[in-house]
Amino acid sequence: MSKTLSLIGAPVETGASQPGCLMGPDALRTAGIIDMLDSLGYEVRDRGNAHASPDCGVKHPNAAIRNLGETVGWSWSLSELGYKSASDGHLPVFLGGDHSISMGSVPAVTRHAMEQGREQFVLWLDAHPDFHTLESTQSGNLHGTPVAYVTGQPGFENIFPPLPATVDANNVCMFGIRSVDERERVSLTEAGVTVHDMRAIDEHGVPALLNAFLDRVRASGGALHVSLDVDFLDPTIAPAVGTTVPGGATFREAHLVMEMLHDSGLVTSLDVVELNPFLDERGRTAKLMVDLVASLFGKRVMDRPTRSY
After folding, report:
1. pLDDT for res 303
2. Residue 60 catalytic?
């Protein structure tokens, strides 16, 4: 894991149905993410908040799709910024923004992994699989499409940026899933994505399921992108998200995932997405997300002071 981190703010809300995610990057900064990473011994380079490339006016026959041109513009911009950071030897940390930012972040790091001769793996920590295509989405919210795009599912050609390399669907592991549309369910099975819903986590536990995936990454010498969505967590502990689904990961389960990822030494890039400060309670969710990022970068239970909310 690189000791130099590039923080890339992605104030994107064009992919979501509720406004507010554009405030996510600054809320994470306000919650202390830079000071926390600095205290853990990392060199932190805050690149500020990115700007979308110009809307190129692309259209799609699915009239439900919202903000297509703007979201395409963000994917161009974030892909270039993330690729440059990875090429400089830094570990890119994308501060979202809704989950459509992964349509830029994942292609960026996948391109870099390809140039290194490494396979790209993705751990998707989310209540939703985000595996809709532009044709299948009924909500029209593009934060529900990034995994389909980055794994090369059909229908994104000539609209979103061409992908120098796609992520093999067999290299995607979804963790904490609990809200899947029927069309997504069929597509996920056909594509070969590994899906661990909350029932699987309840039955088998975090360590067995996550270690099996990490062993695959390690065996291949692969690069690992982690995409952490606020709604991976149970809404009772993380209310600041517009897509709450009951029954998510607990505080302890989420920290265990993060600590295991740190122990593996395999993580090469990170998304923190869907934080909507407008829906938060006195910064509670922003502080929790910073705390989880701290675990991923090496903070231990014994390092945590007692604090009140």
Report:
1. 63
2. no
Residues 6+ positions from 263 with CB-CB distance below 8 Å: none
Is 270 part of any domain?
yes
Q: 308 in a domain, yes or no?
A: no
Q: What is the pLDDT of residue 243?
A: 84
**Angle formed by the axes of helices 284-296 and 251-264, nearest 10°:** 30
| 75 in a structural domain | yes
Domain that holds residue 210: 4-303
Among the listed residues 13, 98, 119, 130, the single catalytic one is 130
- The answer to whether residue 143 is catalytic is yes
CB 79 within 8 A of CB 161: yes
- Identify the active-site residue in 119, 126, 184, 197: 126
Task: With a cut of 50, list the residues of the chain below it in pLDDT.
Answer: none
**pLDDT for the residue numbered 244:** 85
* Calpha distance 19→277 (Å, rounded): 10
Q: Quick check: pTM over 0.85?
A: yes
Query: What percentage of the chain exceeds 70 in pLDDT?
Result: 97
DSSP designation for 101: G
Instruction: Please report whether residue 309 resides in a domain.
Output: no
Residue given tokens 């009239």 in the structure block: 63
Contact 280/20 with Cβ under 8 angstroms?
Answer: no
Residues, the chain: 309
